[in-house]
Amino acid sequence: MTDDAPELRASDADRERVAEVLRDALAEGRLDMTEFEERLDATYRARTYGELAPITRDLPVGTAVAAPKVSMTKEPAATGDWAGRITGGEPSSTWAVAVMSGFQRKGRWTVPRRFNSFAFWGGGDIDLREADFASGEVVINCVAIMGGMNVVVPPGVEVIVRGIGIMGGFDHREEGVPGDPGAPRVIVTGFAFWGGVGVERKLTRAEKLRIKEERRQEKLERRRSRGRDPLERDADPKELDPSRPTLHDLHGDRRERERRRDS
Length: 263
Hints:
By secondary structure, the chain is α/β, with parallel strands linked by helices. 28% of the residues lie in helices and 24% in strands. The protein is built from 6 helices and 13 strands. The chain has helices at 12-27, 33-45, 49-52, 205-225, 237-240, 247-262, and strands spanning 95-99, 102-105, 110-111, 114-120, 123-127, 132-133, 137-145, 148-153, 158-161, 164-166, 169-170, 185-193, 196-201. Strands 1, 4, 7, 9, 10 and 12 form a 6-stranded parallel sheet that branches. Helix 1 packs antiparallel against helix 2. The protein is elongated and about 115 Å long. The termini are far apart.
């Protein structure tokens, strides 16, 4: 935690990031349970960065959470359709767990800089097609034990897969596809044991409907260009040429000839 802006008010997400550092330190044996409980209580009572800073200051470098710096220069803005989707705002959710069950993160939600997910004998769907992004680069960390997860990204997003699989695996098919200018980068990482993490690229439902409508309009235009009413059904040959015999007429004539021959 830096001391650049100790008087700035801390957010719930800042407190939660410090809490995650404390949980990691407890799991590694750097803190005992009493110290962990005291620091966790201080974390959730903290109101500013200055109050949060001492809580993780004596932990190893790299685990402490840095306070965001207020930039005095204009950062390059995202361009194109992505300009309004990289918001830098508070994430809607930072983690998900499925134990003999399942979870979903889909629709309109804000993806954090790092999203942690865990599935044991279960599964999860992480759908980013309609999501906003807290940063231009986000990490989706997936741990699947005898379970599976599926990460769905929209077209235009660059995907990098760094996960490790043991008797399981990570899907690398979407790697190597260049991202659109200003689009976010999604890094899928984690661990799969007797499980798998799939990564696929899909259009949103609204985009599918738009493409379907465009194709329908193109078909109508082609029919109009041939001089035919697109709403008109195939005309009856008898209606086009009254003198032209129909199949029914031909069959009737044949039956009449057979009747005369038999008589």
